[in-house]
Amino acid sequence: MRKLVVAFIVLAGFAGMIGLGALTMLISSSGGNQGWSNCSANLGPWGNGAGRGEQDAGSLKPESVGLAKRIIEVGKQRGLPPRAWQIAIQAGKTESNLANLTHGDRDSLGIFQMRPSMGWGTVAQVTDVDYQINKFYDVLLAVPGWEELRPGTAAQRVERSAFPLRYHRWEPMAAHLVSVEGNVPGISGCEDLPGSSVLAGQALSYAKAQLGKPYVWGAAGPASFDCSGLTQQAWKAAGVEIPKYSQTQYFQGGVHVPLAQAQPGDLVFWGYGRDPNGIHHVGLYLGDDQLLHAPQPGESVEVTKLWDGGQLLPTVVRPAADTPAPPGAVPAAGGAR
Q: 100, 211, 226, 251: most buried by Cβ count inside 10 Å?
């Protein structure tokens, strides 16, 4: 708590409040964009960047690379877009470390840990590589709007895991494999990211209704909030689940977008040395250089001007649509419940 208070005192005393354009210029000229990766609208990575994706892919065993290639081949044969291949690779890496397992939680088997008892097929089928891959694609295609979901979210809709955020971990690796093994160059830019203006409006409506409520460390409503509790509950009110803590929200909360392209509802972050690993504060961007946030102990939820202080990150996070699976969805696979 003491560190948080000191940080805000320093920030408040640093050059006052300045506009978004000036902040962006400051960040560009200071070299503070280390650790920021451009988003790739069709493939990803929407997480930590291509460098980590290549490194993770390089650590795979030959069997795993072979299975990823087969996932891509089957996807191509079926005329499915690269996004589908990426989703399947992320699911396979998460569920089995891209291995055709003959064991798992309860009766979970194979690459995607499909359960015969839950209607995914016989034991022979759910351990047959091509059957598994085709079954995964069949279920994915039945997910409404899967093409517009973040890849890890789409994987979760198929697997229905009790740990929905874990699929995002392998976004960069899966994007790298699709690009290299599938011979699909990554597409830079954020112009095709899923639209979130309606959901953002709902999140901001909730947040504005909390104005004046006190900051309490660790609180997530309804009577008080800390910074990440406010952002989490605001987006939850729009039907979008994001993690609780500010640093986790940066890495797992949605799509990374350059600060200069920030839209209302995006999550804005501050970190010591502009380092994502040093994040200590988050707020909701309102547009026109305005921020809605829960500041620090002794203060209340407020709207203020965006500031820098040498700690504003050059990347914002845009939470992706992540509403709960609809009733009657396909039964769980691979440890999902």
A: 226
DSSP letters for 36-53:
----BTTT---SS-HHHH
> CB-based contacts of 327: which residues, under 8 Å, 6+ apart?
none
User: In the chain, where are the structural domains located?
Assistant: 2-31+195-318, 50-181
- CATH class of the domain defined by 2-31+195-318: alpha beta
Peptide bond before residue 45 is cis, with ω within 30 degrees of 0: yes
- Has this prediction a pTM greater than 0.85? no
Q: What is the DSSP letter of 14?
A: S
Q: Around Cβ 20, how many Cβ atoms within 10 Å?
A: 20
Tens of pLDDT, residues 261-305: 898 999 999 999 999 999 999 999 999 889 999 999 999 999 999
Phi-psi region of 318 (alpha: psi -120 to 50; beta: other; left: phi over 0): beta
